[in-house]
TrEMBL record:
UniProt lineage: Eukaryota, Metazoa, Chordata, Craniata, Vertebrata
Short name of any one Pfam family annotated for the protein: RRM_PARP14_2
Chain ranges of the PARP14 second RRM domain: 1-80
Name by which UniProt lists this protein: Poly [ADP-ribose] polymerase 14
């Protein structure tokens, strides 16, 4: 997977600071489209997605050894490929067939859905695709 999860981010960590840290460690440039960073403040994490041939595992190892990352207690791990995603704000009255058709639509990804497990108590659903490319 070309994705690395950065965990234990401080609540005050700004997107621009994280981008600079990734650039310093990787030697790549976000402005050049070498990677993107998606902040997930609810779990104090971010996902770095590399384009091209960057070795995500090597980057994660470098970040885990980097002085500044250690100082801030930031850890990195490669994101595993998965065939399932959790989708939230799905009310229990929406039929699972509708959810499957929605995700199989070309404008919403066009991936083959093999299972929809609704979680009515959580207003959520777990969508399982035929292969890991369906949830990209």
């Amino acid at each position: 997977s070309p994705m690395v999860v950065l965990e234990n981010l401080q609540e005050t960590m700004k997107n621009c600071m994280l981008i600079m840290l990734v650039e310093n460690i990787s030697g790549l440039s976000e402005d050049d489209g070498d990677f993107t960073v998606e902040m997930i403040p609810e779990i104090r994490a971010a996902v770095v997605t590399f384009s091209g041939n960057t070795d995500a595992r090597e980057f994660a190892e470098k970040l885990n050894q980097h002085r500044r990352a250690k100082q801030q207690n930031i850890t990195a791990r490669c994101l595993e490929l998965t065939k399932s995603v959790r989708v939230e704000n799905i009310t229990p009255d929406i039929p699972s067939d509708y959810i499957a058709i929605y995700f199989e639509s070309k404008k919403n990804g066009g991936a083959q859905v093999v299972d929809v497990q609704q979680l009515p108590d959580e207003d959520a659903a777990i969508i399982t695709f035929h292969d890991h490319k369906g949830n990209a």
